[in-house]
Amino acid sequence: MRGAHGYQRRFCLNKLYINSARRPSSQIAMDWSWPIDPQGYDRFPKLRTNENAELTHLASRQRPYGHFPQHTKDTILRFTQPLHDVMAAINAPKQPRAGVLTVALMEMHRRQSTFWSWSADEWHEILCSSTHAFRDRYRHTSGHSRQMLAAGIYLLQLFDDFRKLGIIDRTALACRIFGRSRVEDAIRRVVDVAVSWGYGRFQAKDLQWAVSTALLANKSPHLEDLTLNLLDKEQTVTSIDYRRSSIAVLSRVLTDLGIVPHPLVKVSGAVRVSAITNGADPAWVGWVERWHNTSTLQNNTRYRHFGNLMKTGRWVTSQHPECTSPENWTRDLCAEWVALVCRMTIGEWILVDRKVQKNRGNPLSAKARAHLLSSLSTFFRDIQEWGWIPRRFDPRRCLAAPRSLRTLIGPKPRIIDDDVWAKLLWAGINLEQSDLARNDLGGHYYPLTMVRALTVVWLFCGLRVNEIRRLPVGCTREQWNASNDSKAAVCNLDVPVNKTGQAFTKPVDQVVGESVRAWEAVRPQQPAALDEKTGEIVHFLFVFRSKRIAENYINRSLVPILCKKAGVPDKDARGAITSHRARSTIASQLFNAKEPMSIFELQRWLGHKWANSTQHYLDISPTKLAQSFRSAGYFARNVRAIEVLIDREVVMSGKAAQEPWRFYDLGHGYCAYDFFDQCPHRMACAKCNFYLPKGSSQALLMEGKAHLMRMRQDIPLNEAELDAVDDGVFALDRLLAQLADIPTPEGPTPRQLQDARLVQISTISMNGSSNEGKLG
C-alpha cells in the first residue's frame, strides 16, 4: 500500500487475501458489537488536586509509563483504567500500550485537563500528521503507539476523523478496531468480485484501502451496513483521484453483491457546472440551472448549452446588468447579442483557460458561433413554452443564425489520406502486447485481445465513439459469403440506438466478427450496466474491471499507439487524427470504390436519418473525379467528329473555285457546302442543292475517285444540337421546327424548300393523272 512501512506492511493486500482465503467464511466470527462503553467511566473533565500532583511528579521525572508505585497507580486509575480496557480490546502489544499511556499522561499534565475534554483539533495535534512526526514529538514511544492511540480513542468515541491523520495504514487500523478476521473477510469478498472482473491483486490494493475506509467511517465491520450516502460522502471528502476511483469501484462491487441498489453516479455534470458559473450574475445562473435541471436533452447536450449560456451570462452581466433576468430580454438585446456573436473571437467572455491562450484573438469558427446562438434560442424557447416568462419575442427568429453565418457552414469531411489510413490498418491488424507498454501516463491495463477488437471495430465499422462504447455482447452475427473469395466475406453488426435513429444492422468485414468473438471468448464476466440512452440494463462488449472504456480512450490512447506503430504523425493538414475522422475516411472510400455504394446506401450504412447528413462525411477522391470526368466526355459531348472527303484532283487542277471539292459525310448523304461548320442546318440538314444523297450517281462517282482523301473534323455543337444528339427523334423535331425559317447556304429556308418540293410532287402527280386519262 502507498506509504506503508514497518509494522504496516504486515497488513498488505496479499497476506490479507491469502490468509482469509485459507479459512472458510463460516469460521470467521461475524458478530461484533462496540467493545467499550465510554459512559461507564468517570468523565469529569478537570484534574483533581491529587491527580494533578501525581502527574506533575511523573512529568518531573520524565519517566515513561511502567512500574509505578501502587499509590500512584491508584491515584491516576481514573485515567488509566479506560486506556487499559481499550488496549485490551484491541489486543495491543505491551510496548505500544505503554507508549499510549505515556502520551496520555504527558498531555494531560501539559493541558491541565483530562482526555475526555479534548477537542478534535487537540487530538489531531497529539496524533500528528505522520508516524515520523509522532516519534519526534514523543521520544519515549515506539512507532506503533500512534496507531494504538488512534484505535483506542476511536473506540472511546473521542476522535474518529482518521482522514486528518495523513499517512496511516487504514487497513491495520480497521483490523485493530474490528478484529483482523472480520476485516479480512470483508476485503476478501470485495476483492474476489473485483478480481473476477479483471483486477489484479496488486491493482486491488486501493480497493482494500476503500473497504477499510468505508468500515471505519461506518463504525461497523459488516459490508451489509454500508450505504450509498456514506460512500458518496467519503468520495466527496477524498481529494486523490485514484482513491476516489477505488471508492467508485467499491460501490460497483457492493451493487453486484446486492448490498446497495446502484453504483455511485459518475461525478460530471453538477460539479463541472458549478465550476463554470464565475462571472455571471447569480440571477442568470439561477435561471440557467433551473432550465438545466428541467430540460430533457441528453447530458452532454445540456452541459454544452450550459457553458454557452454562461458565456452569454457574463456578457449580459457586464454590459446590461439590468437584463440578467430572462424576463427583461427584448428583441433589441437579442439583435445586439447576435451581432456580437457574428464578430466574436476566441477567448471572449470565457474563464481563463490555458488551452485558448495561443489562439486567443483569432476568429471563432462558424459552427461555434452558430452553437452560441442555438443554445440561447433553445433556452428562451423552452422557458417560454414552459410558462416561466411571458412571450415578448420569437427566439427562433430573433436568435437565428444569419444567412451570412449559415453559408460558412457546410460539408467539410476531414478524411485521412489513403496512404496514412493503410498504415493505420496494418498497425491495427498487427497490434502486439509490446505496443501497449507502459508510458509516462501510466500502465495500459486493458487486455490485448480487447484492444485488438476495439481497434478493428474502429478501423472497419465507421461507428461513432458512443456507438462503439455501447455495443452489446453478441453484437456480431453469423458470417455469410456471396462468393468463394474469403476477402469478400462479411458479417452482420448490430448497432445500438444512435443520436438520430433506431438500432440497425450493417454489414462489415469478416475480420470484425473474428476479433469480437475472440474477445468475447476470454472476456471476464462483468456486471450489466445501464444504457443511458435507452434506459436498459445491457452487458456491454468493451467493459473491463466493471467499467466501459472511457469516452476519450480512442483519441488519447489508441490513436497515438497506432500512429507510433505505423510510423505516421498523429496530425496532418486537416488537424489531429481523431476517432470521428475514421467515419469520414471509411465512408469516402466506400463512395470512391470501383463499384461504389450510393449515397442512400451509405446513409443506411452510417445510420443517418437524413441524406444531407451523409454528405458531410463524403469526399470524392481526385482519381474518381478525373475518371468520372473522362467518362462523361465533356469535350466529346460538345463537339462532333464528322468525316470529310477531299477531292484532291479538283484541288490540284485548279477547279476548286468552280466545282465542289470538299464533302461532309452526314451518314445519309454528303454536304458540299464549304462552310459546313457555320451552317445552322448541319445537324438537321434541310437538303438544299448542296446536299448529295449517297444513292445518287454523283455521290457514287465521287466515292470511286482514286485521289480521294479522307479526314475527320470536329464540329462544335450548340445546346439544341446537343439535345438532338442525346435525346433523339423528339429533340430533332424541335430542332427542325426552330430552323424552319432559317435560310440555308443556298438561300431558301427549309420551309420554302419543303413547299417547293410539295409543289413539285403535286405537279408530277397531276401530270401523271392527265397522262393516265389520255391513255384511258
What does this structure look like?
By secondary structure, the protein is an alpha+beta fold. The protein folds into 5 domains: 10-31 and 179-256, no CATH class; 33-175, no CATH class; 274-406, no CATH class; 418-615, Orthogonal Bundle (hpI Integrase, Chain A); 638-759, no CATH class. Helix content is 50%, strand content 7%. It is built from 35 helices and 14 strands. The strands form 5 sheets. A 5-stranded antiparallel sheet has the order 13-12-11-10-14. The chain has a 3-stranded antiparallel sheet with strand order 1-2-3. A hairpin with a 2-residue loop joins β8 and β9. α8 (145-155) packs across α9 (170-178), α11 (205-218) crosses α13 (241-256) and α22 runs antiparallel to α24 (510-522). The protein starts with 12 loop residues before the first helix and ends with a helix.
Give the helix/strand layout.
Elements: H1 13-22, H2 49-61, H3 70-75, H4 77-89, H5 94-111, H6 120-127, H7 131-137, H8 145-155, H9 170-178, H10 180-196, H11 205-218, H12 228-237, H13 241-256, H14 269-274, H15 282-294, H16 299-319, H17 331-342, H18 366-385, H19 395-398, H20 403-406, H21 418-429, H22 448-461, H23 465-469, E1 476-480, E2 490-495, E3 504-509, H24 510-522, E4 529-530, E5 537-538, E6 543-544, E7 547-548, H25 553-566, E8 571-572, E9 575-576, H26 579-591, H27 599-606, H28 611-615, H29 622-632, H30 634-638, E10 639-647, H31 648-653, E11 662-665, E12 669-671, E13 691-693, H32 697-703, E14 708-716, H33 719-727, H34 729-738, H35 750-775
Antiparallel strand pairs: 1-2, 2-3, 4-5, 6-7, 8-9, 10-11, 10-14, 11-12, 12-13
